[in-house]
TrEMBL record:
It comes from the Bacteria. It comes from Microbacterium alkaliflavum. Residues 9-164 form the N-acetyltransferase domain. The lineage of its organism: Bacteria, Bacillati, Actinomycetota, Actinomycetes, Micrococcales. This is GNAT family N-acetyltransferase. Its EC number is 2.3.-.-.
């Protein structure tokens, strides 16, 4: 990264060696709006799930590399929203890379891949208190479609519901 300009962002399909990417993103700051850090067992289970997405085609997870250095991860998986099939998206960018357009570029590419692969709408959920995540959704082209509630171990979590239709990405 020279002068704050994004040099080259690459989406690398998730692989066996990518567990450390999840471990680095498992800090209190990075998981503030996600219920806090996960246990190692939970991280290993999520890593296995990401590998399964790659194998099954029910989604796609990627390590986000910037200039050859791991900067986070992003991906999509098939889900149901309001009884309809959709692709849900997720993205995490390590603090050293935040504020440089990495998440916007990575998530935009993931949305385009999800739409091209499935032809389905893409949904994103952001904690109502996470303005950075909501701003990212707006920058990528999502439209706010209301709020919902997700159950969690710490009680219900209110989220914004963001949508992109396949037609809006053509």
């Amino acid at each position: 990264m020279a002068g704050g300009i994004l040099m080259q962002l690459t989406l690398v399909p998730w692989s066996d060696g990518d567990l450390p990417v999840l471990e680095r993103a498992n800090s209190a700051d990075m998981t503030l709006f996600l219920g806090g850090p996960e246990t190692l067992d939970d991280l290993e289970a999520r890593h296995a799930q990401y590998l399964e997405f790659v194998e099954s085609g029910d989604g796609a997870m990627f390590r986000v590399d910037v200039d050859g250095e791991a900067a986070g991860y992003a991906g999509w998986w098939t889900e149901e929203h309001a009884g309809e099939p959709v692709c849900e998206i997720g993205c995490a960018v390590e603090p050293a890379w935040q504020g440089r357009g990495v998440a916007t570029q990575a998530l935009g590419r993931v949305v385009d891949l999800a739409v091209a692969t499935t032809g389905r709408p893409v949904v994103g959920y952001s904690h109502v208190g996470n303005e950075a995540s909501s701003a990212l959704c707006r920058r990528v082209g999502f439209e706010l479609h209301g709020r919902g509630v997700f159950p969690s171990d710490d009680g219900d979590v209110e989220v914004n519901i963001w949508f992109i239709t396949p037609e809006s990405r053509r």
